[in-house]
Design brief:
The complex is a heterodimer of chains A (130) and B (352). With 130 residues, chain A is α+β, with helices and mostly antiparallel strands. Chain A has helices spanning 8-29, 89-93; strands spanning 36-42, 45-51, 59-64, 69-74, 77-82, 102-105, 110-116, 127-129. In chain B, the strands form four sheets. Chain B has a nine-stranded mixed beta sheet. A three-stranded antiparallel beta sheet of chain B has the order 3-5-4, covered by helices on one side. A three-stranded antiparallel beta sheet of chain B has the order 8-9-16, with no helix packed on it. In chain B, strand 6 (200-205) and strand 7 form a beta hairpin. In chain B, 45% of the residues are buried. The model of chain B has no long low-confidence stretch (mean pLDDT 92). The chains are: A alpha+beta (130), B alpha+beta (352). Strand 8 of chain A pairs parallel with strand 8 (221-226) of chain B.
């Protein structure tokens, strides 16, 4: 009868609501940790972006440029498939798949770097020396 | 009474939902809007910037512009650059150069003196013959090395920093600032971040790194040190440095190198012999408060070797990590709490 702001019955409503809120938060945190996106840049400007988790088949991407660069995107990884450059460092780099990895063709001025779709996942460095 | 309670409960529900939605939106957009990452190519290498703050985009493009200008001022390959003009005027007269070129030359000259000429900015006659990373990289003949080694001598480079002039005393001499340019670019980038009002940022020009300000969450910058035994370009980390400011550069045998008749030749040329220095080291990483200096010291300390580098490091108040080809790692005492090895192939040695 007295003025009570809360009684036990109210908890039946409040607790489920808090649980739902918690689930929404966790759902956001627990996205697949390997969510990797490849950013392809040509001459320092973005050429395209490939979500490697959504990549279901092997695809050759024609980036062109002076070295006629072609990339190979496949489920979970990307690599330089072809370049006319003399050193072939980019092609020899092989597949990259983890956030923080990069493959670069200096003569062709094309770079591919992997970033994580979900900023809080995985260990990434701010920079690499060497 | 009951009505009252219901209202309270509804308010709680609404508040909980609002908070969770706001949280999701903040996570998705809030933090990211202030962070800007970009890459471009200059100084013959790959540049990666991560800048934070409202002016992040402007700061990054200001830095890229400054680096482009620096490149066209100090590259010996660019016609009309300060260095190209200086090389062309070798053996004739003093020429006027930009103040920044003068100070970079002065710093190179100081480091050359300290290393007794193992590190030498007048290495161009030799380095252009080897042409590391170029279309014509090859081992020059012994006769040619002997012939052109005579034109490598830092004592014949004269600089007047008050008038911003410089001269090379003899014909056939030439300056190659390849060992300091990338580091100098890092200093320029950090200056650009400061003057455009970025909150904080980090730049990597090839293997040289410059840090500006503190990260928003207060954590230090995580800088990976490359595993020098991995020779392909897809670098793996052997350790990490946690730093709050300063500049880092690494010189290693894995970059700009080629194999001829089964022997590996790398770009770290000893100016006294004209050949790549093979003293058992595979990489040297320097941490110091200036970009060009970090770059010059990483090369200089590589050439000198660990023991002989000690006075040089002390003079410039620099810290170093030496890695030799037995995967033994030697780190300065100051880096004890900042440097951790993440690859167990490498063994940290007690410091003598």
């Amino acid at each position: 009868m007295e003025k009570k702001a809360f009684c036990r019955k109210d908890l039946l409503i409040i607790i489920p609501v808090l649980i739902i809120a918690a689930i929404m938060f966790l759902g956001n945190y627990l996205q697949p940790p390997s969510a990797a996106v490849a950013i392809v840049e040509k001459n320092g400007t973005e050429f395209c972006r490939i979500d490697l988790q959504k990549q279901k088949s092997i695809q050759i991407i024609n980036v062109g440029g002076p070295m006629n660069i072609k990339l190979k995107a496949e489920p979970g990884a990307i690599s330089f498939y072809h370049s006319d450059c003399p050193d072939q460092i980019c092609v020899r780099t092989g597949k990259i798949s983890k956030p923080g990895q990069t493959a670069v063709c200096l003569p062709g001025k094309v770079s591919v770097r992997i970033v994580s779709r979900n900023a809080s996942s995985g260990k990434t460095y701010d920079a690499f020396t060497g | 009474m009951k009505k009252h309670k219901k209202i309270i409960v509804y308010c709680c529900v609404a508040a909980a939902l609002l908070i969770s939605i706001a949280g999701l939106l903040w996570k998705k957009y809030g933090q990211r809007s202030t962070r800007y990452q970009c890459t471009n190519f200059a100084m013959g290498t790959y540049i990666q910037q991560t800048v934070y703050g409202k002016n992040a985009t402007a700061a990054a493009s200001a830095a890229a512009k400054r680096i482009g200008e620096l490149d066209s001022t100090i590259s010996w390959r660019t016609d009309g650059s300060d260095i190209a003009r200086l090389n062309k005027a070798a053996g004739t007269d003093w020429i006027s150069i930009q103040p920044e070129t003068a100070s970079i030359l002065k710093l190179s000259l100081d480091v050359a003196k300290e290393t007794d000429g193992a590190f030498d900015p007048t290495i161009l006659p030799i380095s252009s013959m080897w042409d590391f990373g170029g279309n014509n990289q090859h081992v020059p003949s012994k006769a040619n090395i002997q012939k052109f080694l005579k034109y490598v001598d830092y004592k014949d480079l004269r600089i007047d920093t008050s008038k911003n002039t410089a001269s090379l005393r003899n014909h056939y001499m030439g300056i190659d600032l390849g060992a300091v340019g990338k580091g100098a670019a890092c200093t320029d980038a950090v200056d650009a971040y400061r003057s455009t009002g970025a909150e904080c940022g980090i730049i990597a020009v090839g293997g040289s790194i410059g840090m500006f300000g503190h990260k928003a969450d207060g954590s230090p910058w995580d800088v990976a040190v490359r595993d020098p035994t991995v020779t392909d370009q897809n670098a793996a980390a052997m350790g990490e440095l946690s730093l709050t400011s300063g500049y880092v550069s690494t010189s290693g045998t894995y970059e700009l190198c080629f194999k001829q008749n089964g022997t590996l030749y790398h770009h770290l040329l000893n100016a006294k012999t004209g050949y790549p220095e093979n003293n058992g080291l595979t990489s040297v990483t320097i941490v110091v408060n200036d970009g060009a200096l970090s770059d010059a010291l990483s090369t200089a300390c590589f050439l000198l070797g660990r023991e002989k580098s000690a006075p040089l490091l002390k003079k410039y108040n620099a810290d170093a990590i030496f890695i030799d080809n037995n995967k033994h790692v030697y780190a300065s005492a100051n880096l004890k709490d900042k440097f951790t090895i993440t690859n167990s192939k490498f063994v940290l040695q007690p410091q003598g």
